[in-house]
């Protein structure tokens, strides 16, 4: 009993404990320093980029956009058509003195091509103070006469022009022309029988019949019939055929396919009638065999006044 150990209160005894929070505190502090450093570097980079952007913007404004040395002084305008350069300058919407680098060239190009008379335009800067503009105009090859009722009674005829692709144009004001209107341009062939709702200035007529009629007019200028007769009207109202009327009083029916071959056959029949001193009254080229033709004696027609042969339309070069 003398050697038995007396039990002690464990709560009063001193124990040596491991300090387990020491390592986690160190890790947490290291992470906090890393996050703070990363955030500071990110903010520094953003601030540096902003400062560089503001400096670059200030430099561009001082050196380019607000530099009086690049103020527009000359607008070099050239066109392959008949519109006056002064009118083209007005259509650009650009005023003298504007900074060339501050000028939106795409917008200037859109302003020009918005006019229905212009097919394409190119705009470029020529430093230090010149704007170069090159314009390709649409050339009218046919016209459409659209009747419109007059408010006070009666009917007015509104004339629209079509180019070779079928784009609709109003008649160009003579005051906007750099050269007078030629007689051949005043007497364009008339396309009749088309839907009037398709006549929207600046838009392209998508009617297949009208597109074939325009191809016929183009093929006629390259055919052996050019210079022998003058086309005055192409009626597209009939299905599958075109009815062509000449100034000499002939009516020729064309199919919508193989126009060049039909023009060659027309020339052969025309020459055969000329040898017999007869003039075609009507001809149906849409029929492949035994072509129907009706003739008039040459003496039955009044003599036509002599007139110069119109030269073929010049093919424009694109600028």
Give an overview in words.
The protein is α/β, with parallel strands linked by helices and 319 residues long. It has 3 domains: 26-65; 68-137, Roll (Ubiquitin-like (UB roll)), CATH 3.10.20; 140-300, 3-Layer(aba) Sandwich (Rossmann fold), CATH 3.40.50. Helices cover 30% and strands 24% of the residues. The protein has helices spanning 21-65, 85-92, 105-113, 183-186, 208-221, 259-275, and strands spanning 74-79, 118-126, 130-137, 140-149, 155-163, 168-170, 190-192, 231-235, 241-246, 251-255, 278-284, 293-297. The protein is elongated and about 115 Å long. Residues 305-309 have low confidence and may be disordered.
Secondary structure tally: strands: 12
Give me the number of helical elements.
6
User: Strand sequence of the main sheet, in spatial order?
Assistant: 7-8-9-10-11-12
Alpha carbon gyration radius: 41 Å
- Kindly state the percentage of residues in helix: 25-40%
Indicate the overall shape. Answer: elongated
In this structure, how is the largest beta sheet organized? Answer: 6 strands, mixed
**CATH homologous superfamily of the largest domain?**
Cell division protein FtsQ/DivIB
Keywords:
single chain; 319 residues; alpha/beta; Ubiquitin-like (UB roll); Rossmann fold; 3 domains; six-stranded mixed β-sheet; three-stranded mixed β-sheet
Concise structural overview:
By secondary structure, this protein is α/β, with parallel strands linked by helices.
Describe how the helices and strands are arranged:
Layout: H1 21-65, E1 74-79, H2 85-92, H3 105-113, E2 118-126, E3 130-137, E4 140-149, E5 155-163, E6 168-170, H4 183-186, E7 190-192, H5 208-221, E8 231-235, E9 241-246, E10 251-255, H6 259-275, E11 278-284, E12 293-297
